[in-house]
Amino acid sequence: MPVALITGASRGLGRAIAADLALDGWDLVVDGRRHGPVAEVATALRRFGHRVEAVAGDVTDPAHRSALVSAADRLGSLELFVNNASTLGPSPLPALARYPLDAWREVYEVNVVAPLALVQEALPLLRASGGTILAISSDAAVEAYPGWGGYGSSKAALDQLHAVLAAEEPTLHVYRFDPGDMRTDMHQSAYPGEDISDRPEPESVVPAVRALLDSGTPSGRYRIDDLVRS
Question: Do the Cβ atoms of 91 and 190 come closer than 8 Å?
Fold first, then answer.
């Protein structure tokens, strides 16, 4: 069976992608910050009869990153790496003029440095399989929204990182995917006290993700509107 490693898989889009892949026969390595939620996800996914490794920890921790890749190696291969884990930063979202620099550095550690470090760890397995890397981006990476300077600029850096990676690793598919607004805990944190029930559930985005992954289309940046939503 093919193997996928998905960071930030204990909730939101990461969990939805993991569930869909499990239904399709994939073995999985799933990551989340806290043991309880990620273990719960793994238990739910194992009911489909496939192997699921749950590894709780912080993606900024080198030991945790090594544990994730080692778990994939134990499963025998790595065909897909989903760089999904990220942090919004302070909530309510601060303007750049008063953005706390310690918080800024933390956003970049989680959203840029850790994804690159994980790619570096996972590359031998991905090269061996001719695999795929999927980085979850955001429209905030390309649009200027007040308050979104920290998160948005980190996603812009993530986009460029994966664009260069695609040029350097031509045997891999390297996708940057903008899922649009979703009804997630992170999006709620961006709008504290507001009703975001009009946003689509993460599960509604998964068909577009799968359409991209299954298409064999060239590496690049794709928005949900570029793909089939069903």
Answer: yes
Question: Which residues are the active-site residues?
Answer: 137-138, 151, 155
Q: What is the pLDDT of residues 18-29, one digit of tens each?
A: 999 999 999 999
Burial class (CB in 10 A: 0-12, 13-18, 19+), 42: buried
**153-184 burial by CB neighbour count: b if 16+ within 10 A, else e?**
bbbbbbbebbbebbeebeebbbbbbbbeebbb
> Mind spelling out the 3-state secondary structure of 70-136?
HHHHHHCCCCEEEECCCCCCCCCCCCHHHCCHHHHHHHHHHHHHHHHHHHHHHHHHHHHHCCEEEEE
Give the SS3 label for residue 61.
coil
> Which structural domains are found in the chain, ordered by start?
3-226 (3.40.50.720)
Half-sphere exposure of 93 (CA within 13 A, CB side): 18
Burial of 230 (0-12, 13-18, 19+ CB in 10 A): exposed
Q: For 222, phi and psi rounded to 5 degrees?
A: -130, 140
**Which tens digit of pLDDT belongs to each residue from 203-223?**
999 999 999 999 999 999 999
Place of tokens 């920890």: 57
